Amino acid sequence: MSELLLRGGRPWIPGAEPALADLHLVDGRIAKIGPGLEAPSATEIDLGGALVLPGLVDAHCHLDKTTWGAPWSSNPGGATLAERVANSERRRDALGIPSAEYAGNLLDAMITAGTTLVRSHVDVDPALGLRSVEAVRAAAARHEGRVDVEIVAFPQGGFLNRAGVTELMGAALESGVEVVGGIDPAGFDDDPAGQLNVIFGLAEKHGSKIDIHLHDGGTMGIWEFRLIAERTRALGMAGRVTISHAYAIGQQGPDEQRRVADLLAETGVALVTCAVTESPVVPVRVMHAAGATLGIGNDGVRDLWAPYGDGDMLRRIGIVAGRAMLISDKDIELALAAGTYGGARIIGAADYGLSEGSKADFFTVDAPTPAAAVVAVPERKLVFKGGRIVAGTDAFAVAGQARDDA
Asked: What does pTM read for this prediction?
């Protein structure tokens, strides 16, 4: 039996002020939280009043596209979605993408920054076959026990407009990929009903979840929200369907935003926002008020779409908070909750969180409040995954202390 007693941390529970408490970890789970705990057989670690935050959840990234750790490569860019897709597909082979090494490098950076759960969209197309799936699986295996990775089979270049994509998506799901993806049923395939019928059909057949990139804006995008919500309700898939980016809701007035958020909450459809460049951001306060699930992701990091990003979800949460004009501590914590508990709900991690019985996935920082941590992006002192220290600036010293205590 593995056993740790973490003394003097300040665990954060959304809606409550962090207070000093000890955490007793047994076999990778939180056995008890409270002040003055006793565990004579446990190795003790003094947290020194550090803030304890649940493991960050990147609910939307593209591990297969990254060049993290590769020599700098100038990106010619592209003004439109189609141009960026074409640039990515044209140059990926020459740069050795997809690369299990680069994807693994990025995962390492994410882990160091406190991320414990990741959902990665992974390209599936006739030229690649399932090579991207294989690369990301290999990268995840390299970090087994340090982070959990869920894969979305993603038809980046379109679904119905490319022969063989539907069959490849089915093959990816047959191989164990957990989520079927989609992209702009109207804007890319010009057939919203057709693409959604295929996506939901594959999900039904394979018992998969769904996560659809939806860049389509305006009234067209809102109409697609409703189509997705209707199918989710009809098939009893509440809690298993996500719309990523979801630009259209950020472009609506307050009344329409509330109506859409209420529909999402009623039907169990989640949204993910990444606050990339000038793109519209999902209204965080509105989603919270409706009780609808919202997650946050880094999207592309140092890849053929753009050279930006560092994989740090705490920094991304701060970008979302700033773009959504969340000013008070209470409102900033809404963004933090989306980047932690919201993402965990999307992935389906039922044993997630800072509560007794939950898996011991969390990290510590020196910050007076959770909002201050989001704004300052302090170094991660200790990162725990399954009750084991997997990263952090204090990891080496604490490991030595634990050995001495033992």
From this structure: 0.96
